[in-house]
Design goal:
Elements: H1 8-13, E1 17-21, E2 24-29, H2 33-42, E3 44-48, E4 55-58, H3 62-69, E5 82-88, E6 94-104, E7 107-111, H4 117-135, E8 142-145, E9 150-156, H5 160-165, E10 168-169, H6 171-180, E11 186-193, E12 196-203, E13 212-218, H7 219-235, E14 240-242, H8 245-254, H9 276-282, H10 291-298, E15 304-310, E16 322-325, E17 328-339, E18 344-352, E19 361-366, E20 369-376
Parallel strand pairs: 3-14
Antiparallel strand pairs: 1-2, 3-9, 4-7, 4-8, 5-6, 6-7, 9-13, 10-11, 11-12, 12-13, 15-18, 15-20, 16-17, 16-19, 17-18, 19-20
Length: 384
């Protein structure tokens, strides 16, 4: 059965077109996806990301457990900060990519992708059992899947801070807390809504290549906060546009960010997506899930590499298109479309290592015809 977020009825009232994404009925766009994309680049966009998961890991040994269960090292993350990382399966392939926030010395919030949230929550629960019963008997670790009762609203774009400040309660001190919030950090903040003040978890991470904030909050606070942000922006004469997954995809592609299901799948190793050094460092730890599989992967250079492609033509490559050099297939496009901010087609592709040098000229088969592309450094777009 397809799931819906607590904001689904609001999206319907706004005239959204919906699509299935990871088992969720999500807004694809509200009108023009190009307009929504440009709104985020030029002012601010408002997203419902409540399909994402939230898994709380707590206990005196939570940090040591996450060092075992996930690929990055979380025991060195400072309170109030966040870290990007991976969770792998028994074969050492990527089960999901994650953002993890350190809430306190003994508490973390792990955020998996939508369709993977149940699998990640289950994997962490099983690994916690093994960790506390076998590897470190008596260790203090609890895992709680808070996804069903948690919503996530994001404001992205150069005016996102200004939008947020229109609803922050607590005067100048609270406003300064928001202004001082660093990238990949979080804080607690109170937002003023027509339904009363709402205490929320505010993060400054983002997936669009722009400045932006993610607001984690209880389901019943999602609609009041959404409406307060819209009203606050209108009062301050700031253009704030509801945005769907189509704009989110084109924005993240311009920013060169991978998408699970496209660039990352269960056939992807950490080394394939440039996380080889993280994997090597993880292997030095005393306890590590799938150590033998990861060690075997680390023994050889990855056969492929994720690269960025651009074209001076008009035809955009699409996922699944073959990439050729001298008529020989050397890779596959994972994501591709015209870049609204750049005015030409862009793509991400996995290529054989021998053909991944920046500046390499190659061809992409688009519906039976080859079109010239070349390899460029990522990201395609950088703000400022």
């Amino acid at each position: 059965m397809t799931k819906t977020t607590s904001l689904h009825d609001l999206h319907a009232r706004l005239g959204a077109s919906f699509t299935d994404f990871g088992g969720w009925d999500m807004p694809l766009k509200y009108g023009s996806e190009l307009t929504e994309h440009r709104a985020v680049r030029e002012s601010a966009g408002l997203f419902d990301l409540s399909h994402m998961g939230e898994v709380r890991v707590a206990g005196a040994d939570a940090a040591a457990f996450l060092d075992y269960a996930l690929l990055a090292k979380y025991s060195i993350v400072k309170n109030g900060r966040a870290k990007y990382g991976l969770i792998v399966d028994e074969s050492g392939h990527v089960l999901d990519d994650l953002i993890t926030y350190r809430i306190a010395d003994d508490e973390f919030l792990v955020v998996p992708n939508a369709g993977n949230a149940p699998a990640v929550a289950e994997a962490l629960t099983l690994r916690a059992h093994d960790f506390t019963s076998q590897l470190v008997p008596g260790a203090d670790v609890t895992v709680a899947d808070e996804s069903p009762e948690t919503s996530l609203v994001a404001v992205q774009g150069p005016q996102s801070e200004a939008v947020l400040l229109t609803v922050v309660s607590g005067g100048d001190e609270a406003a300064q807390t928001v202004k001082d919030l660093a990238y990949y950090s979080w804080t607690r903040i109170v937002l003023a809504t027509a339904a009363g003040e709402k205490d929320v978890f505010l993060a400054r991470t983002g997936y669009t290549g722009e400045d932006g904030f993610e607001i984690y909050l209880p389901n019943d606070a999602a609609e009041p906060v959404w409406e307060a942000l819209v009203a606050g922006a209108e009062k301050a004469d700031i253009a704030l546009t509801p945005c769907g997954l189509a704009a989110r995809d084109s924005l993240r592609l311009e920013a060169g960010m991978p998408l699970y299901g496209n660039e990352i799948t269960l056939e992807t190793t950490p080394a394939d997506i440039g996380m080889g050094k993280v994997m090597q460092n993880a292997l030095k730890r005393e306890h590590l899930f799938a150590r033998d599989a990861l060690a075997a992967i680390a023994e050889t250079e990855p056969a492929r590499k994720l690269v960025g492609l651009v074209s001076d033509g008009r035809r955009a490559a699409r996922a699944g298109s073959d990439v050729l050099v001298g008529g020989e297939v050397v890779g596959t496009v994972t994501s591709g479309q015209p870049a609204p901010s750049l005015g030409h087609p862009i793509a991400l592709a996995f290529l054989d290592q021998a053909h991944t040098a920046e500046g390499t000229e190659l061809d992409v088969d688009i519906r039976g015809k080859v079109h010239p592309f070349r390899i460029v450094a990522l990201p395609f777009y950088s703000r400022g």
